[in-house]
Amino acid sequence: MNFKLVFWLVLSLITLVAGAVWFATVLTGKPTVLESSSNVKVVVPESSFDWGTIPYAGGNAVKTFVIKNEGTEVLKLLNIKTSCTCTKAQITTEQGQSPYFSMHPTSSWSGEVSPGKEAQLTV
Predict the structure, then answer these.
(1) Tell me: the pLDDT tens digits for 96-116?
(2) Following DSSP, what letter does each residue of 32-101 receive, concatenated?
(3) Who has greater pLDDT, 81 or 28?
(4) Which of 38, 103, 106, 122 is least enclosed, having the fewest CB within 10 Å?
(5) Across the beta sheet with 90-93, what order do the strands follow?
(6) How far are the Cα atoms of 13, 70, 85, 116 from residue 123, in angstroms, in the given order?
């Protein structure tokens, strides 16, 4: 094989891998550092739901989940994402409604649930 051809193939491969790593880093953003507290107690009475069969042309299927804070400190909700681009979610707290969340991109929104209060997660 020609030395120039091998050189350019290796250089192209290195450039492609470096570009992919850079692109993945830019898309994921900086990780969120979470503070844990033994004084926050999250209770989600219904943590799963069987959607059954959803017809493709049947409109949106909607379910609201309750998120309760039974602790003594404020519960902070942030970095909300769905697991599929076909799904959107919105949180309602005492402060109002969040924007809609999806799988991409990472949102800068954060909300709080006071002790003894609850939020609603609509999916």
Answers:
(1) 999 999 988 778 899 999 999
(2) PPPPP-TT--EE-S----------TTS-----EEEEEE-SSSPEEEES---SSTT--BEEEETTEEPPPB
(3) 81
(4) 38
(5) 42-43, 64-69, 118-122, 90-93, 96-97
(6) 42, 23, 12, 23
Please report the pLDDT score of residue 26 as a whole number: 54
> Quick one: tokens of 5?
């051809």
**What residue segments make up the domains of the chain, in order of their start?**
1-30, 33-48+60-123
Question: Could you tell me the fold of the domain covering 33-48+60-123?
Answer: Immunoglobulin-like (2.60.40)
**Residue 55 amino acid letter:** P
